[in-house]
């Protein structure tokens, strides 16, 4: 199958038509001038964000893509953790359980973990 220029479309097509996906990653990516470290641990994709503030900026700039990203991850039975240090501040994909905070923040299918978010903010200061 030829790959398209749209990574999410390619992954979504593979998830729907192909065998179960297994992801192994260890890379650095810059999105909107925010350096991210993306890796996998067991069955989870870890997206390491340098700070809570950078995570909030990224979330705000990418919020239009979150529903599609989460749909693709869920279709592939994958879960991504958004982390600041060791704190998992949000979950996207198959294991995400969005709650009232996700509704109030209008982040759709992204599970935001308030306790971890508060702990990450307190560690930064």
Structure description:
This protein is α+β, with helices and mostly antiparallel strands and 125 residues long. Helices cover 39% and strands 27% of the residues. It has 5 helices and 6 strands. It has helices spanning 7-17, 52-62, 66-75, 100-105, 114-124, and strands at 26-31, 34-41, 44-48, 79-84, 87-93, 111-112. A 6-stranded mixed sheet has the order 1-2-3-4-5-6. Helix 1 (7-17) runs parallel beside helix 3. The longest helix is centred in the N-terminal third of the chain and has 11 residues, at 7-17. 23% of the residues are buried.
Distance linking N and C termini: 48 Å
Q: Into which percent range does the helicity of residues fall?
A: 25-40%
Helix vs. strand class: alpha+beta
Question: Low-confidence spans: pLDDT under 50, at least 5 residues?
Answer: none
Q: Quote the beta fraction.
A: 25-35%
What is the makeup of the main sheet? 6 strands, mixed
The tally of beta strands, per DSSP, is 6
> Average pLDDT, to the nearest integer?
81
Give the overall silhouette. Answer: globular
Alpha-carbon Rg, integer: 14 Å
Summarize the entry for a quick read.
With 125 residues, the protein is α+β, with helices and mostly antiparallel strands. It has helices at residues 7-17, 52-62, 66-75, 100-105, 114-124, and strands at residues 26-31, 34-41, 44-48, 79-84, 87-93, 111-112.
Which keywords apply here?
alpha+beta; 39% helix; 6 strands; single chain; 125 residues
């Amino acid at each position: 199958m030829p790959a398209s220029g749209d990574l999410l479309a390619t992954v979504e097509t593979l998830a729907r038509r192909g065998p179960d996906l297994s992801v192994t990653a260890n890379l650095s990516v810059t999105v909107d001038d925010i350096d991210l470290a993306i890796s996998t641990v067991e069955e989870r994709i870890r997206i390491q964000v340098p700070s809570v503030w950078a995570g909030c900026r990224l979330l705000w700039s990418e919020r239009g893509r979150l529903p599609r990203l989460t749909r693709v991850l869920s279709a592939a039975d994958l879960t991504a953790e958004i982390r600041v240090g060791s704190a998992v501040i949000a979950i996207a994909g198959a294991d995400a359980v969005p709650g009232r905070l996700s509704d109030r923040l209008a982040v759709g299918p992204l599970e935001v973990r308030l306790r971890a978010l508060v702990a990450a903010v307190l560690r930064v200061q």
